[in-house]
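Below is a filled-in request sheet from our internal design queue. Each sheet records the structural input a requester submitted and the sequence that came back. We keep these sheets so that new team members can see what a complete request looks like end to end.

REQUESTER: design group, bay 2
PRIORITY: normal
MODE: inverse folding
CHAIN LENGTH: 136
BACKBONE (tokenized):
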């Protein structure tokens, strides 16, 4: 059985590595793709160019989205996703290093599944996976 795709959109390689390790600990580490910015994430999510083959590049069951990305930020990318019929229901967890009430509220309004503080804790990701119905 092929494990569901998890997409990490994170420009900091250390944070991306830590997220991958936590995903592995909760049983979701076998099919992870890390993209460094919103532009690449949009290409992936649209299935553009090298990502056109949906068998090789399926839509993610969960996206871990950094709030602070170069260029388009995480909230802007999430707002775009919510406007796309094929993507509007994807599960997205916002990643941030600060507990900012305004950012948390904006994430909630954009229907993010949750706001996770970096570094991500194993139990928080395990709970998120259970809440969004991802089998581990």
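RETURNED SEQUENCE:
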């Amino acid at each position: 059985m092929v494990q569901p795709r998890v997409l990490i959109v994170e420009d900091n390689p250390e944070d991306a590595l830590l997220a991958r390790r936590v995903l592995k600990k909760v049983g979701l580490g076998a099919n992870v793709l890390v993209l460094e910015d919103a532009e690449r994430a949009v290409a992936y999510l649209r299935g553009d160019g090298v990502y056109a083959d949906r068998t090789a590049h399926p839509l993610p069951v969960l996206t871990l989205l950094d709030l602070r990305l170069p260029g388009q930020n995480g909230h802007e990318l999430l707002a775009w996703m919510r406007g796309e019929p094929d993507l509007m229901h994807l599960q997205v967890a916002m990643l941030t290093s600060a507990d900012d009430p305004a950012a948390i509220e904006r994430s909630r309004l954009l229907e993010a599944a949750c706001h996770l503080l970096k570094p991500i804790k194993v139990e928080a990701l395990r709970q998120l996976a259970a809440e969004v119905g991802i089998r581990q």
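SHEET NOTES:
- The first strand starts at residue 6 and ends at 9.
- The chain has five helices and five strands.
FILED BY: M.R.
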